[in-house]
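Reader question, answered in our methods column.
A reader sent in the components of a multi-part assembly and asked whether the whole thing could be modeled at once rather than chain by chain. We filled in our standard form and ran it. Here is what they sent:
COMPLEX SIZE: two components
ENTRIES:
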Amino acid sequence: MDNLHSLMIVLPEVSLAALGLLLLLVGLVNRSNTTHVVSALTVLSFIITAATLISPHRLSFLMGGTAPVFAFGTMFVDDTLARFIKLLILAASALSVFLSGGYLENHKIARPEYPVLILFATLGMMLMVSASDMIALYVGLELQSLALYVLAAFQRDDAKSSESGLKYFVLGALSSGLLLYGISLLYGYAGTTDFVKLSFVFKDAAPHTIGLTIGLVFVTAALAFKVSAVPFHMWTPDVYEGAPTPVAAFFASAPKMAALVLFLRLLREPFMPLAMEWQQIVVFIAVASMLLGSFAGLAQKSVKRLMAYSSIANVGYALSALAIMNKDGLSAMLIYLAIYFVNTLGAFGVIISLRKQGQQVEAIEDFAGIAKKNPLLALAMTVFMFSLAGVPPLAGFFGKYFIFLAAVKAGMVPLAVIAVVTSVVAAFYYLRLIKVMYFDESKQIIDACPCFGVRATVTLAALYMIIFTVWPQPIIDGAIAAISGFIRG
Amino acid sequence: MTEIVFYLFATILILSAGMVVASRNPVHAVLYLVLAFFNAAGLFLLIGAEFVAFILVIVYVGAVAVLFLFVVMMLDINFVDLRSGFSRYLPIGGAVGAVLLAQLVMLGLAWKTDPQLLSVVQAAGADAVDNTRAIGRLLYTDYFYAFQVSGLVLLVAMIGAICLTLRHRKDVRRQNVDQQLSREIADVITVVKVESGKGVQL
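And here is the structure of the entire assembly that came back:
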């Protein structure tokens, strides 16, 4: 009976895993369009999973779904926060699969394992954001990371892609080591790996044992690596540059959200009594990420590296929302993530669709004059860049606005000021790209790829950026409901 | 009796571990490593951890060491070259090692073990259940979730390894059963009427 109950709670994850196994078999059929079919079925699996996640049957089984429910002892938790972010993760993964089709075929790396690996990475992320135990956290994180290492090296005949996969793997293994070391310290001093029990231990350990704090620092450092926050960001530009572009787009969207929400759950649940200790760490890495992301981005020549630094800066904004840690701050972070992932996927979509003589466009100067030949693509890119820069009518502005507002309300004015200043600095490199597209003379012929998936994604993302302005209610309400359900629980 | 066996295993373990580093022939080094693993497994058996002991033999001796042997035999690595700086770095390396050893000894002398800890250490083998069964019970109940997800992690590792390394070589002729079975007579045999004295034009 208890196991049946647990299975009902993890039903979305179980169905995603089962569909993934099935898709592996489908991939074995040796046809020319197998990858297409598997990709389409992967997106379908994401839709089925999302439907299971929020199906009224399951929610009524979970007693309305407002209070958190635990499965398998206390390993797995399902609450409003987990459901909200899982929907975003599924959407981001589905869009990433859409983005990949044309690119994979153009580079002759279209193999059915690609969407299946994205599926398993997504499963890992869903398990991560629902982890309620250090062991569950670790296995979820490892499932996600392992799939991502392989995806980074997927273009295996390309030296750069292999290099980025290897680099990501070695540094990722190092950060997993740090994480496990931190967890073992926490377990050694607290005697439990369960989040709820850990929070009680931390509350009672009045003069905090130094070992607990060291464990906390290790775990925080490892997670900062996973979200690529400064000073653990070094891998990001290299991996983004070397990995196939749609993979870089995937890296910048779904795993970032999953790791940030995992961070949020960890700091808010077991580590909340240690807020004095971790708040200064989080503020430091947030400020450092914002500064480095904006200033180092100025010197970039490759557009993929630029996007990498942009993602570091954006993680900085999300982390400063995390540092505030009250209801306003956390819901601002969720809103920010919900906007950012669409924004970055859209921008990557434009990068993927531009080609010169069949080759992928990488340098910023290659964008020169594309506005004349591909006015719609240039317009879409303008929307994404303005939105990333936080120019008012677009969605990106609201994402930043809520964070700054929450910071000021919580009395963290210096943090808000740094965030505003760095976003002005970062606006320079976003605007420069627009200037290059519209005002520079083009030197070579740039074609847009006719891939349907990429076009659909770019169009959808651009529309989302604009529609959010007039109708932001679903996202804002969803984020606030997710956070109030989480904090009450 | 147990003490004698312990010292036997421990001495051979340390000696063979030393030989792993010292032996000139890499194949010998790997064989000494296997010996070291066996003796470590013996030590585990002595403290009643038979599951860990057998895992050590099966996984490390059966798989890892054999893999090492394969790698050593397949790659032509000149270990003498790798060790060329040995005598040059010996003084500094030895000094660092000595300092570390001295610190460890000091730490060991100053260490006070919590009396409660001893009871925890002994708890593993204290009840009637042997520890393979005890681990199995935990793994399939409390840690069922983590166990299953670990299975998925291994699956992804397998998919990854295959899709990064498997290459279908075009120049190798493979047996294609489908093709063989679906061959029709008309595809492969032509019946030709041979006129006498003219032969066949191929």
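What stands out: Chain B has two domains: 1-113, 123-152. The mean pLDDT of chain B is 85.
Send us your own complexes using the same form.
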